[in-house]
Amino acid sequence: MSGRWTARLALAAAAAAVLVLLVTAGFASIVLVAVGAAGLALTAAGVWWTLTHAGWVRPAAGLLAVAAPVTVLVLYSLAGLLWVVLVSLALWALAVSAGRAALADGSAPGMPERSVGRAARPFLIMNPRSGGGKVGKFHLAERARALGAEVVVLDPAHRQDVAELARRAVRDGADLLGVAGGDGTQALVAGVAAEHDVPFVVISAGTRNHFAMDLGLDRQDPSTCLDALTDGVELRVDLGRLQAGKPVPGDEGRVFVNNASFGVYAAVVQSPAYRDDKARTTLEMLPGLLTHHSGARLHVRAGPHTLHSPQAVLVSNNPYHRGDSAGLGRRDRLDSGELGVLGIEVDSAAEATDLLLRGKQGHGLTAATAAEVVVDADVPVIPVGVDGEALLLPTPVRCRLVPGALRVRVPRHRPGVPPAHPPVDWRGVRRLALTMGRAAAGRDTA
What we know:
Layout: H1 3-25, H2 28-52, H3 57-78, H4 82-104, E1 113-115, E2 122-126, H5 134-137, H6 140-146, E3 150-153, H7 162-171, E4 176-180, H8 183-196, E5 200-203, H9 210-214, E6 232-244, E7 254-256, E8 259-263, H10 264-270, H11 278-290, E9 298-302, E10 305-308, E11 312-317, E12 339-344, H12 349-358, E13 365-370, E14 372-377, E15 381-386, E16 389-394, E17 397-411, H13 426-445
């Protein structure tokens, strides 16, 4: 279906969603919408109070968060209008999906790639514990050696400096570096690859594999990533760099391939008790962190934006997809040359409700891009999560992007990055449905 007809479907479904309410429920449709909005508001307030309070308030707030939507559904059912609401919601979901698909037609192409020859002396580092043992499960070391690569499998019993292993390999003549492991290990070796301008291979053997996902690699079968050694193409992607404390001449800082997180999440994962009981530790620490009764007070400068005392800040190597309500799904590309910035400042149940109802337009969420982000605090050292690694760093922490710093070699044939679906702009959908139709009619009569 063309973008023009998809846009028309979106407008028709949106109109039908409204008409179903008006025709079937009449004046009661206004009451239906009001009751639904009230239920959402009470749910958001209940969740906020659950996270920010301890003692008897927490279970009471949790009960409110559950009871509010259930009560709304019961009221709809008693009024005999539950089916009307469900049909209207289904039509609205169709309208939003069609609108996003219509606007995605003709979206920007993916990252440019170029064909390359086969590396003569590839060097790969593999972590046997990553991803629950994917290195062993998929026989990655054996397969890589059969393709001519030198492979070092890390010893779980002894901590090894993967960056130094990579530097030594380059000194010994390696003309390609690669990692089968988590994003934190990927970042450390990627920094060495960028430093020596040698290509880098990502093998999706970690747990989440966010970097691999945004490169369009197969995350289910990491052995397919080894095809980059024999039939690969090369991408030029950006790298994030993070410098902490007083600038030191010649110190380029730590590399990050995904993001650096500050605030609540970074503080929670630093707790010694977090590994033993993640849920309990999180619930115990959240009230103090969210209400600023504990933890550092952050001050963030991101281009023209300034955030005072945000609870959480995420600085990413390229911005996350705008169409995702949370903005944390994936990145459309890794070569835009800009940092992505997401900051959350929520100080009350009302602001939490506003954020839930309005998403990225909510008052408590800042979504921006910047060339540099500076995170300062009222304490000399703050917790920071860098590509999933928990660190303690001196303030201020400066994040910047190095455009096109990393040569990434990927398989020529790979799943690829799914096409981006932008947020719905109803004016754009309407313009697409009408203007394109006139343009098409003009072409037909020409």
